[in-house]
Specification:
- The chain contains ten helices and 14 strands.
- It is an alpha/beta fold.
- It has a nine-stranded mixed sheet with strand order 6-5-1-9-10-11-12-13-14, sandwiched between helices. Strands 2, 3, 4, 7 and 8 form a five-stranded mixed sheet that branches.
- The longest helix is centred in the last third of the chain and has 15 residues, at about 270-285.
- The termini are far apart.
Length: about 300
């Protein structure tokens, strides 16, 4: 019998962000002044979720191919600074993923300009397969469908819970459906369930996604400042977002995933996990970038206690 660790292993988008705060977002063919730049923070859906989980006290491990370029080096060091286990990282020839993020200080919104990597698929060697098989949860996004599907298959065979961040979609919707069918925990952004299901009603979209593949333990969608919707015990429940003076919403959804999984491994109660993840995500928005504002567990719990 495999000894299961209380850890989250992630396979998905890892990138290096250049965060630019601008005076105001310009119209096309216009211009604006950059008032601040921060190139020190990593990004990516799964990558930022892992950093959030680690900062909250949950063991987190990443499996990824990173380029031998400077961006790959920065991404790797970013994981190491945050205590994310990088033994599953392989350095390969190619360009690592990078993004320019423009932050509008008027409302904290961000506009992203990502540059995809040119890296080969992950071959999943024996050590990486063992990492997945020993984890409590495998967390995925759909940015590299081939990597995600291969990792999900390994996890399913080993009896590991599969978590999917429903954010990045493939042009071939059958691929989206196949990946969603592998997930035990399916938390989607405000667009994904409608586009993938073809439904226009939120409840219908959630029920459609819940019916895909394995019997799901969690099915929900996040909606930014409007909170989230979750299908619990056959009913759709609404959960409000915590109101804060947002400076930058970059990575808020990614952080929600990491916080949800961190709390899930402690209690397994969906409603409690949503409340905790909403708090962590809100606190993140108080600082610029996807990672700088992620609180530790004590800070998140103090915030929640202050609202009681």
């Amino acid at each position: 019998m495999v000894e299961r660790k209380k850890s989250v292993v992630g396979v998905g988008h890892c990138c290096q962000d250049l965060i630019c705060t601008v005076e105001a977002y310009p119209p096309e063919d216009g211009s604006t002044h950059i008032t601040a730049m921060d190139g020190s923070q990593g990004g990516g859906a799964v990558a930022t979720a892992l950093v959030a989980a680690s900062r909250l006290g949950t063991p987190a491990e990443v499996i990824a191919n990173l380029g031998t370029d400077g961006a790959g080096e920065s991404i790797l060091h970013g994981f190491e600074r945050e205590g994310v286990d990088t033994r599953g990282v392989r350095r390969v020839e190619g360009i690592s993923s990078q993004s320019i993020v423009m932050v509008n200080p008027a409302n904290g919104s961000r506009t992203k300009f990502p540059c995809r990597d040119s890296l080969a698929p992950i071959p999943f060697d024996e050590d990486q397969r063992r990492q997945i098989g020993e984890a409590a949860v495998l967390h995925l996004d759909g940015t590299r469908w081939d990597n995600a599907m291969a990792a999900a298959a390994i996890a399913r065979e080993a009896g590991v819970t599969v978590s999917l961040d429903g954010c990045s979609r493939q042009a071939d919707n059958e691929r989206n459906l196949r990946l969603a069918a592998m997930a035990d925990i399916l938390i989607m952004n405000a667009v994904y369930p409608f586009k993938v299901s073809g439904r226009e009603n939120p409840e219908e979209a959630l029920r459609f996604m819940a019916a895909q593949g394995v019997q799901k333990r969690v099915v929900m969608m996040t909606r930014g400042s409007e909170g989230s919707l979750a299908l619990i015990d056959g009913r759709v429940e609404a959960f409000p977002a915590f109101r804060v003076e947002a400076v930058d919403t970059t990575g808020a959804g990614d952080v929600f995933h990491g916080a949800f999984l961190s709390e899930w491994l402690l209690c397994g109660d969906v409603r409690r996990c949503i409340r905790f993840a909403s708090a962590v995500s809100a606190l993140k928005c108080l600082r610029t970038g996807g990672r700088q504002g992620i609180p530790n567990r004590a800070e998140a719990e103090r915030f929640l206690a202050s609202l009681s």
